[in-house]
Amino acid sequence: MARAVRAAFQGGAAAALFTAVTLPLASPLHAQQVANTDSAADAVAPGDVVIVTGSSGTGKRTKTKASYSISTIGEDALRMQAPTSVTEALKSVPGFWVESSGGEASGNIRARGIPVDGFGSVTLLEDGIPVQHDPSLGYLNADQAFRLDETIDRIEVVRGGPSSVFYTNAPAGAINFRSREIGDAPNGLVKFTVGNTGQRRTDFWYATPLADGWGVGVGGFYRIDDGARDPGFRANDGGQIRLKLTKDVDHGRLSFDVKHLDDKVALYLGIPMRTYADGEIRVIPGFDGNHGTIAGPQTEHVQMKMGDGRLYDFDNSEGTHVRRTQFSAGLEKDLWNDWKLTESLRYSKTDTQRNGVFPNQLLSVDAFLKQSQSLLSYVPGATRLSLQYANAPGHAYVDPNALVIVGGLRGVTMPLEEAINDARVARKFSVGTQSHDVTLGYYYARFNQSFSRYSSSALLGAQSQAPLLDLVASNAAGQALGSITDHGIYNYGYEWENASGTSKTNALYLADEWQIDPQWRIDGGVRWEQVNTSGRTERPTFVNLGTFATSKVRTGTGVFDYYDHTFNQTGWTLGANYQLAKNAGAFGRWTRAFRLPNLSSYITSPTATPVIQTMDLGEVGYKYNGGMLELYPTLFYSKYNNVSYTNTIFTLDNMSSTPQTGYASTRTVGLELEGTLRPAPWGDLGFTLTLQKPEYRDLRYTDKVNNLPVPRDYSGNQLVRVPKVSARLAPGVNLMGDKLRLQLSYEYEGARFVDSANSVRLPSYTVLNFSTRYQISPALSVFGYVDNINNSQGLTEGNPRAGELQSADAGANTFLARPVIGRTVRAAIKYDF
């Protein structure tokens, strides 16, 4: 046995961990010893939390006995924070840098320094099943298809560890939203929320047991909102409804869940910022940096000309509009000879329309007019150019900052149909006085996705709710002879795509929890996964319809390029936990994870040659849960191999985005600290801290400058948008016999960089939030929230359209960037029954 332990730790082969299960089963003489070992190992310390994410088998696992890093966010914590998005809900998770400045959907997560946008390194689960098999499909991130409401009871977040074995596309972690259980007695709630952004929201939940072991629950929300960054029209509008059924069966339980989402939310993008004489970065004069957005009434609805003569109906009031129907079914059942079966099925159909006004370039008016001199040839007799308001011909554009934005009116349509199935069998075996809790699983996923995109560039004033501008040509006497642009449109069709594809995934995984004695446990697992991606992409061409605005309209040719590729990879994890006491333990783990190419790798680039991305992840941690103090420090190491970087630079001369793709590796070492201090019954302090050194390794490529090759080497530079220091403090007090709670949160993000060259720096910033709860009666509670009390304009990202390898904004005094959302105020009343 000792040799097996050493073999497992020395990593000769992942199979060494499982050799013990082939030994003869223990005799009845050892049964009591095994029972004592299992009983001690499964004991739950007071105040500890039973978790279900990141583990399997027949036993139960608690937070302080897990051999991996996991954060739990309970119902009370969620209500005190009242997060407006998935990413907002994860601000208290150490090791995660989250960006929620884009609105209620379209967030970004960087986990443990892994430099992948969106949800490319973590998976989003609902009741243990992926919300979306691949959570990062280009313009279709999993958080767009999921909304938080009162049907969710708690969140469990696994950082690294076994997430890559039990779940697909989860090398850096898994975020599991657990829905409410139905319970043994009727119960329900209704909650009304109002806000200073015009928000009106209703959440509800009702559940009751029925006859013959059945139970039913129904809940959801509906919300309208003008938006934290007001575009001049309703930004957020919609909701969802869920029906949940459960049935107790012989030695098991069935569950059925149907949910329909129909919701549209605004997409907030960059605004003009400036570095001032005092060194501080703030919004340009006249622009509302806390609540302003360049999207406005003039860009709300635009009929854009297409190359085939049709009109594209760009409706920015749609924002990110998701219509999704999701059906889930589950079975947990004890089988013969102590086997346990867990079966999870999810089918979903999602239709997404994603519209946005993207700020591609910020230029001075003089620079723009100078670059545009060659366009005078489009208007005979013209000798000078000027900018005028598109909706007020003859009125010159007047801007105190003398700036103009070249924006993109981008519309993307993405229907997705998906089926996911995850089946597991588990059994606990005894070997002498020890036990093995073994899980064997099979995962299958298939989805069909279509993708179409059409974009036109527009001239916009550098103002909140930006006006459309026309480039007007005049003669020497100043008489306007004609407009080069078309009602503010500079160039129709600078983007056009038409593609579709199918992805099929098969995976097998095996895991074992080896309880050596009441203190020592070793667990590990291995996952083999294969993905096949196939589809077609229509070849584009350019047509000239006779005017400058229609001189380079990108459109389809009717000729398709086809692709059909298969990839497979094996990953594994091995960890150990030593339980010092019921409420204290230490753990260590090493994981070899991977991420296979997905449809996004091909859907607009059928000739692309993506590579399998692999990661080496290590962690060592301590866990303590006492009455006065909870403390979870973890040292971690992340090495990301073969990560691809696409540098997309928007250029005015041809109105296109020119991609540059490179591959590199990254390395991050760091410390995560999570905990709660309760020095008195009336007060507590929650805290998280992340200290890390995130850097590129082997990031080298050859650039072209004046048609000459220039080598670039960014090895050792800090990762894009990943801070070295992140911290959150959440002090709270309970007064009036715990009827009143007051809570403040202090959030700090260290300095970051826009690009791999580290040429554009995003300074550190702090955000203060306040929340309160007063319990009027056992059934009635009121809540108050003030987010971003200090009206911080902390920058979460620069302008990715200026390039993320080397930003074109380097050295610029005025540039585009996206700050956190300004101060908002909300109040809610909740009634439980």
From TrEMBL:
Keywords: Cell outer membrane, Ion transport, Iron, Iron transport, Membrane, Receptor, Signal, TonB box, Transmembrane, Transmembrane beta strand, Transport. Residues 1-31 form the signal peptide. The keyword Transmembrane helix does not apply. Residues 63-174 form the TonB-dependent receptor plug domain. Residues 313-789 form the TonB-dependent receptor-like beta-barrel domain. The keyword Membrane applies. InterPro entries: Beta-barrel_TonB, Beta-barrel_TonB_sf, Plug_dom, Plug_dom_sf, TonB-dep_rcpt-like. Pfam families: Plug, TonB_dep_Rec_b-barrel. It is found in: Cell outer membrane. Its main location: membrane. It is a multi-pass membrane protein. PANTHER family: CATECHOLATE SIDEROPHORE RECEPTOR FIU (PTHR32552:SF89), FERRICHROME IRON RECEPTOR-RELATED (PTHR32552). Belongs to the TonB-dependent receptor family. This is TonB-dependent receptor.
